[in-house]
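Async update (no meeting this week)

Hi team, since we skipped the sync, here's where things stand on the single-chain job. The sequence we agreed to prioritize is pasted below, unchanged from the tracker. I ran it this morning and attached the output directly underneath so nobody has to dig for it. Comments welcome in thread, and please keep replies under the output.
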Amino acid sequence: MKKTIRDYDLNNKKVIIRCDFNVPIKDGKIIDDNRIVQSLTTIKYALDNGAKLILMSHLGRIKEEADKEKNSLKLVAVRLSELLNKEVKFCPVTRGKELESMVNSLESGDVMLMENTRYEDVPGKKESGNDPELGAYWASLGDLFINDAFGTAHRAHASNVGIASHLPSGLGFLVEKEVNALSVLVNPEHPFVVVLGGSKVSDKIGVIENLVKKADKILIGGGMAFTFEKAKGIDIGKSILDEESIDFCKRIMSENPDKIVLPVDTVVAKEYSNDVPFKEVLVENISSDEMGLDIGSKTVELFSSILDTAKIVFWNGPLGVYEFSNYAKGTERVLNKLVNINATTILGGGDIVAAASNLGYKDKVSHASTGGGVTLEFMEGKELPGVVSISE
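Output:
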């Protein structure tokens, strides 16, 4: 069992919490503060228990000096101050006397947010390369390390694995909740049904390889379904195709003929647009000048009948182009079925959680993961360095 923040006396301790404040920013404004909100439970617990808080996070990708200004965490400090209803001190540097002075002046109940950890990626990728000197330096600022950034748990960075290797450490409430929720998928109750959408098969090969051994059925929709249909010899018109994955699709279907379930009909249009005529056709009737953009009503019925039998459902990726209202209906109808079955239902991060949130279903499932890539790596059976590195 990994230690958690509950296992430590935080009073008057300098506690470093690695958060995931990688929020979308447009025109100088945070357009979705969900990741900040998700971190509040751990932050408030630490403050209520007398900690001196040093918060760290990355934001965006820093490949050159010019990337720094648009990826500053200063806006996050302002929003976090509003959410906590107290001052969050902001340190504009990631090392040196100014940072050390701010840390040393913290009193019990104070909160400080350090500038974007990935500023250390220019030059030399010290953060994302888990530079040992940097990890040791950041660890020297605190007495205790808490990892509450699930979105980077699949990466070994200086700000998670690096710090954890030098300090007593534990999981924050967000990471603990994610790990507990996803752990039911390691040895799932049966029938176990997987729903996979999204555009490319190549992004999900590892997941399919791992889950096909455990799942009773894998329902495939979204753009990736057309690569499977093509592998069956069906003409998919102008639909999205992941050419290099055709051989994989042929093999996985031939080895698991009763497990892989594909759409039987689709909603087609002649352009990738919400403003052109569209219609439902059987998949074998897609014309050469049409592209499939959503699953059809017969497929919704087929998928729904299988979900009715499930004890556990894991779903990653939307079943159509949910950003367009005309092609969100398949995803919406299957989500509606999902929240009305007697099963443990888990949404696997990224676009399907965004779709569920937009359509009003996110809070009706058993668990909606905050991780995208990290959830997929977990489902591939890989270890998560950001969790493995935490004290037992």
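Quick observations from my side:
The mean pLDDT is 94.
The first helix runs from residue 34 to 38.
Reply here if anything looks off.
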